[in-house]
Specification:
Layout (H helix, E strand, L loop, with lengths): L2 E19 L2 E10 L8 E7 L14 E14 L5 E14 L7 E3 L2 E2 L1
């Protein structure tokens, strides 16, 4: 079971959507976590499939609160070497100063 966490930070970059295959698409973005400005954490995250449109409401420099699942997997490359991947898969985002439980407007829940 994936671990879910919330991260507050500033969007630094939003990448284009990528179609990995006919059933899986993703859109990556990067935030600088708020917290310790002396040692900033720069984190790449992604929205996948039906969650991708959530990111359309945001732009670089927006302060956001993101709910992510920490996911990991093992993969054997073509040479037979075992590799490991960790992904921060976002599933909810709203303005960091929003006190409305994750709603950007009255009719658009995230």
């Amino acid at each position: 079971m994936a671990q879910s966490v919330e991260i507050i930070g500033t969007i630094l970059k939003i990448m284009d959507q990528q179609a990995v295959n006919e059933k899986f698409s993703k859109r990556e973005f990067v935030i600088e976590e708020s917290g310790n400005p002396q040692y900033p954490e720069i984190l790449k995250m992604e929205f996948v499939n039906d969650k991708i449109p959530i990111l359309d409401k945001y732009k670089v420099n927006d302060q956001v609160k993101v709910s992510v699942n920490v996911k990991g997997r093992r993969w054997n490359d073509p040479q037979g070497q075992e590799k490991y991947f960790t992904t921060l898969q976002a599933w909810k985002m709203f303005p960091a100063d929003n006190q409305n439980g994750g709603y950007v407007s009255d009719d658009v829940p995230f």
